[in-house]
Amino acid sequence: MSELDDVELVRLALGGDAAARRELARRLMHAVAREVSFAVARLSKSEGRDPKQEVRDLVHEVLLGLFEDDGKALRRWDPDRGRSLESFVQLIARRRVPRMLSGGRGNPWADAPIDPTVIETADDADLAQRLEQRDQLDQVLGAVYSRMNERDHELFDLVFIKELASETVAEQMEMTRGAVNAWAYRVRKLARTVAIAADGQSDRTKGTARHG
Amino acid sequence: MGDELLEALAKRQRELDQAEPALAGAVEGDAGEALLDGLFAELDAQPETKPKKSKPDPEKVVELPKRRSPVWAAAAALVLAAALLLWFARPTPPPALPEYRALSVSGGAAAVRGEHDGVASELQLHSQRDTVRLEFAAAKPVNQAVRVSLLARRPSGAAVFAPLDDLHVSDSGSFRIRGPLERFIRLSEGQWTLEVIVAPESHAPESADEAASGDWQRVPIEVIIAAP
């Protein structure tokens, strides 16, 4: 479906056309389910619930958030910013689902206070390698996502996942290059803080298992 | 500061974007259609919270007074500024929240309906892993940030407190607590009175003692968790 069709579909759906609303929700349901599935697979492995039901519950929640308040969240989609409707909705789901999975309590280990010197001096390469070996990258991704706002998610996608040049990102996001670089510095620090906490948590768990 | 960590995280996200998630099929076919039925039933049952725009009544249009001289205007501005300074300098408690009520309470093996409004007031769960669906709305739109907390109390007096710091509260002030109970608060088997406490963000309970003793707005739900 072209972007023009999508714009019309959103307009009709939020304007009260019941058939358009259902069609839009059906399409978004699949985009959201994809995002939710990854989160459930990485975060709910050991909790012993039916993972398919968990996916359905979370998809329901995300869709409610998109359509309630007169579709306020959906109305923020602007195709002129270069993002498809599905991609826009997936970013929203990526941000909301880790919070939902933590029950609105955040992730306790990711909030542990960390000495700023440790954050400044940590070796990123070592840290990344350890997290990868322990299969913890998904967990850290989820925790980083849950601390980002909508704009952070968009920037993260453009700067680090799509690896666009900072000039292109600056133009697309209507920012200066300096502001993009400042944002990148801030998100590096956030990722490092969360990764160090995950790394420390894993060490403590191992210690408990050894001694307990 | 190096980029290796962010590069590793971004690489992982790119791998996920290419992968075919096994669980995405959970919304295929009838299961997906049933989800949409439930979604629209819930959306259509939500109370209208957006104030309707109405045209101004021409009979109620008030004529503004004519302009005063600049000296008077300056003096009035100074007096107003001084008054505002005094007003903001003194600590003021946040305005009271409108009344909250439960729109729906369900989950677990059984939900026992209340006497008056038809919303369940008691939940019987097999375990704290059972999914609960609690939905709350304010009687009027809420014009400030709110914080939701849970306080569970035993008849014996034991209490467990859990602030839900990241819970999404809509612009109108409504919120949902949906998912396995243990995700929000961890309770052992037996009988609990679970109080959902809603307070202004700047003036909310921080501990079980504060939550139990303060004059908070609370919606109680009886929860019975079966023995394993």
Straight-line N-to-C gap of chain A: 57 Å
Terminal-residue CA separation of chain B = 50 Å
Radius of gyration of chain B: 25 Å
Tell me the Rg of chain A in angstroms: 19 Å
- Would you tell me the structural class of the helices and strands of chain A? mainly alpha
Quick check: average pLDDT of chain A? 82
Number of strands of chain A: 0
Please write the string of helix (H) and strand (E) elements of chain B: HHHEEEEEEEHEHE
Number of helices of chain B: 5
Task: Summarize, please.
With 212 residues, chain A is an all-alpha fold. Chain A has helices at 3-14, 18-43, 51-75, 85-101, 116-121, 124-133, 137-146, 150-161, 166-173, 177-211.
Helices and strands in order:
The complex is a heterodimer of chains A (212) and B (228).
Chain A: H1 3-14, H2 18-43, H3 51-75, H4 85-101, H5 116-121, H6 124-133, H7 137-146, H8 150-161, H9 166-173, H10 177-211
Helix pairs in contact in A: 1-2, 2-3, 2-4, 3-4, 4-7, 6-10, 7-10, 8-10, 9-10
Chain B: H1 4-18, H2 29-45, H3 70-89, E1 100-107, E2 110-113, E3 120-125, E4 131-138, E5 146-153, E6 159-163, E7 175-180, H4 181-184, E8 190-200, H5 208-213, E9 217-225
Parallel strand pairs in B: 3-9
Antiparallel strand pairs in B: 1-4, 2-3, 4-7, 5-6, 5-8, 8-9
Your description of this structure?
The complex is a heterodimer of chains A (212) and B (228). With 212 residues, chain A is an all-alpha fold. Chain A has 2 domains: 1-104, no CATH class; 106-212, no CATH class. Chain A has helices spanning 3-14, 18-43, 51-75, 85-101, 116-121, 124-133, 137-146, 150-161, 166-173, 177-211. The longest helix of chain A has 35 residues, at 177-211. Chain A is globular. The termini of chain A are far apart. With 228 residues, chain B is α+β, with helices and mostly antiparallel strands. Chain B has a domain at 100-225: Immunoglobulin-like (Sandwich), CATH 2.60.40. Chain B is built from 5 helices and 9 strands; from the N terminus they run αααβββββββαβαβ. In chain B, the strands form 2 sheets. A 6-stranded mixed sheet of chain B has the order 2-3-9-8-5-6. A 3-stranded antiparallel sheet of chain B has the order 1-4-7. Residues 50-56 of chain B have low confidence and may be disordered. The chains are: A mainly alpha (212), B alpha+beta (228). Chains A and B meet through helix 2, helix 3, helix 4, helix 6 and helix 7 of A and helix 1, helix 2 and strand 7 of B.
